[in-house]
Structures are given as C-alpha cells and as structure tokens.
Design brief:
With about 450 residues, the chain is an alpha/beta fold. It has two domains: about 160 residues, Rossmann fold (3-Layer(aba) Sandwich); about 230 residues, Dihydrodipicolinate Reductase, domain 2, CATH 3.30.360.10. About 30% of the residues lie in helices and about 20% in strands. It is built from twelve helices and 16 strands. A ten-stranded mixed sheet has the order 14-13-12-11-7-10-9-8-15-16. A six-stranded parallel sheet has the order 3-2-1-4-5-6, sandwiched between helices. Helix 6 packs antiparallel against helix 11. The longest helix is centred in the last third of the chain and has 20 residues. It is globular. It starts with a helix and ends in a 17-residue tail after the last helix.
C-alpha cells in the first residue's frame, strides 16, 4: 500500500543516534496472550486525555507501558517524570509515531492525539499487527471511519473506541430499559453538550517552540504557520484539525443517541448555529443545533451544543435524553440515569455506578479504567465480539457528528444514503466526506 510503503521508506532512511536504521516489519501475526503474559503498551499523545490512558493501562494486570510518544519533547519529559514519581516505572520517550508503530516489542497502542491523526495511526497500527484503543472521535471525516473498520477487519485487530460510557453498568442498564419498552416506543434522542468554552483570542503566528516537532504534529493535515491557537488544545476549534464540540465531547453523546435508538446513519440532516459570543479565531460554531432524521424508522435525533452559561435539562448538561410514548430517560454524564413516567413525570427507575470512582476507578465503573479493562480482555482473548466500543462505533458516532458539521458548513438540508455512505446527487457535500492529505501521510485505501 502506498501509505504503508511511505512509512517504511521513512523508517529505512532514518537513523537513531547510536543505533542502526530501523526497518519496518511486515504484517505481524497476532500474538497469543495467556493470562500471565505481559502486554507491552505505548500511549500516543500525552498533553491531555493521554494522562488518563496512562492511568487506564496502569490499572490493568500484566500490562506494562514501555513507551510514550508525543511530538512535543517537553511534554514527554514531564510525563516521564510523572509516571516515574507515581508508578515507579521507567518509560522510553519517542517523538515519532512511526517508530512506535514499527517497534515489534509493542503489542498495543492507545491514541490520544489530535483528531486529524486518529484514523491514520489506527490503520498503520493495524497493518503492523497491533491492537488499538483510539480516543473519540475515531475519525476526522467519514471516509476515514469506513477505512478504520475495513483495516480492523482485514488485519484482524482489536480496536476499541474511547466512548467509556459504554462500559458503565448504569448506562448499560438504561439501554436495557429502553430495549425492553420501559418508556414505551422510543422515537427521539436528544444529545446535550453544554460546556464552558471561552474566548481563545487570536495570538497570531510565532516561532515553533523548542522541543516541538511541528511537522509531525501536523501529520496528515495542511501545515499552517505555527500559532499557539492550535498547539496544544485549541486545534479543536479549527476545521483542519478538530471537529468542534459536537466532534469532541459530543461523540460520547452521538454514540449514545445511536445506541439507544438502535439506528445507523440518518437519511436527512440539517444544522444551524454560529459564533455569537467571542470575536476570536475559532472557525467552528460556538452554538450548534443539528437534526438527524430517520423517516423510515420513525425516529429522530436532536443534538445541541452550547458554550456558556445555560440551564441543565433535568439535571443533565452533558448527556442524553430518550423520549418514549410512556416516559423518558435522562442519562447524565458517563455513569448514571433517571427515568420519568407518564404525563406527571413520576420518577421511575434510576441507577448509577455508585462509589466506584472513590475507590480509584475513573468516572465510575464505566470510566476509562473499566473501558481499558474491557479492551485488554478482548486483546488477551483476541475476541472483538466482547468489545464494548468496537471500531464500528467509532465510525458511526464520529460520522454522525461529521454529517452535522457538513450540513452546517453548507447551510442547507442534506440527503444521505447510508448504504453507500454518500450524499444523494450532491457533489459539493460528497467532497467533504474526505480530505486532501500531505504526501507521506495519506490515509490508505484498504483493499
């Protein structure tokens, strides 16, 4: 494959000080793990969510983080010290993701990189015989999501999507109630992302900081002049790298909307919103309302992003509401739910993950640690069927956000064919299903 070949060509031409040039392996057969076999892991992307990935791996039996990877050496050195201080473990540092992918001693990787790297790194890892835990959103565009599914299938890899609420016993219970008809015929899901997002200003261009390999940070995306408004967090609000809050925090909620309604991609999409608060350099809308219609199933998804002071909806600011003809269920956050029945809203069944968070499990029993436990179990058994967040969820939940963003950017109602995953007679919209990639970082076709 062209992209795999370009990665190998880079490795062959690269020489690490004091060592011989590394040569990428061919596709490695699955390693069979026993209960007592150590799994070697690497965490890629250490500025934010990657710190929870370190915790997630460290909480598992017979799992060892051997490497951490980030294009910013300053962050790597900080995290190396943190891991040594907290866990007493020494980890190797690597700036280049390609060296991690081609290291035969690494069995699994987790990806907490910016969105524009998720799909390419996942596919490269699958090609190299590694299993992957990838943060949400799984993809930066819809075409990438489909290729991730194809790669996981072709190379027979375990790929877990980082929607940890799928590992929450309470959320699983809420889904069972929906399936069992507890609130009647469920016709609508509402996703909420009410998060405080402030003014990021416009810091202009500046020299690349010492220690940051900005070319590697950019990877598959267009390379803009360096600005602090991209690195390290505010890339979320720029289309070339992020997908706005519906494609950030919102993926947990798009995923749960689709899971609860038991639907795939919609056939009609419309979105409206804009920037109403800050005169800053964000490109994405601050406020966004999207509607995803399923006329054949008589179901609909409403999704709303709000960035500033706002009311909660039955206690939820980040969560989901499912509406049936006998009541509704509110899923608040990652690990609890409450139901209300009848016209008088009589409180019904409720649940949460209890005091699990106090015992050291992040965000309840369904938090990051629990989701990593599910991932590692699937890796050991080499059984994708037991994954709580399989790669298909990465494609669908991310894709729903992408569809809403495309409708917003084009400013019109879109008609979509879920079977072909293309728009109906709409070349302009179809062009936004993928992107142009920088040479050497193309997301490959899986054939």
């Amino acid at each position: 494959m062209k992209n795999d070949d370009s990665r190998r060509s880079f490795i062959k031409k690269s020489v690490v000080a004091g060592t011989a040039a590394m040569v990428a392996p061919t596709i490695i057969p699955s390693r069979a793990f026993g209960a007592n076999d150590r799994i070697n892991a690497a965490v890629l992307g250490l500025n934010g969510r990657g710190k929870s990935h370190v915790q997630g791996f460290m909480a598992q039996d017979n799992v060892e983080i051997t490497h951490i990877c980030d294009p910013d050496m300053n962050i790597l050195k900080e995290r190396q010290k943190d891991i040594k201080d907290k866990y007493g473990k020494d980890v190797a540092l690597e700036q280049d993701i390609r060296r991690i992918i081609d290291n035969k001693d690494i069995d699994v990787i987790s990806l907490a990189t910016p969105n524009h790297w998720h799909a390419l790194a996942t596919i490269w890892a699958c090609q190299a015989g590694k299993d992957v835990y990838v943060e949400k959103p799984g993809s930066h565009n819809i075409s990438e999501g489909r290729k991730m599914v194809e790669a996981a299938n072709k190379y027979d890899r375990i790929v877990q999507h980082g929607v940890q609420l799928r590992s929450s016993p309470a959320v699983q219970e809420a889904i069972e109630l929906i399936r069992d008809g507890y609130i009647g015929r469920v016709y609508m899901a509402r996703g909420l992302v009410f998060r405080m997002r402030g003014d990021i200003g416009d810091k202009g261009f500046s020299p690349v900081p010492e220690g940051l390999d900005y070319d590697l940070w950019t990877g598959p995306a267009p390379k803009r002049p360096f600005t602090e408004n991209l690195v390290h967090y505010n890339w979320h609000w720029h289309w070339d790298y992020g997908n706005g809050d519906v494609g950030n925090q919102g993926i947990h909620e798009t995923d749960l909307c689709m899971w609860g309604l038991d639907v795939g991609f919609p056939t009609q999409i419309t979105s409206m919103g804009g920037k109403y608060l800050w005169d800053d350099c964000k490109e994405v809308p601050e406020v966004l309302t999207s509607i995803y219609n399923y006329p054949d199933e008589d179901k609909i998804i409403q999704f709303e992003v709000r960035p500033w002071y706002t009311n909660a909806e039955d206690g939820a600011t980040v969560g989901n509401i499912f509406y049936g003809d006998k009541g509704y269920i509110v899923v608040d956050g990652y690990d609890k739910y409450q139901s209300f029945l009848g016209r008088d809203r009589t409180p019904g069944k409720s649940g949460d993950d209890g005091n699990a968070a106090a015992s050291g499990i992040d965000r309840g029993a369904g938090g990051t640690d629990g989701h990593f436990a599910n991932f590692i179990e699937a890796v050991r058994k080499h059984d994708r069927s037991i994954l709580n967040g399989p790669v298909e969820t990465a494609h669908l939940s991310s894709g729903l956000a992408h569809l809403g963003n495309i409708a917003y950017r084009l400013g019109r109602v879109l008609n979509f064919n879920p079977s072909s995953e293309t728009f109906i007679n709409d070349e302009e919209a179809d062009a936004m299903l993928t992107r142009n990639y920088r040479p050497g970082f193309e997301v490959p076709d899986i054939v």
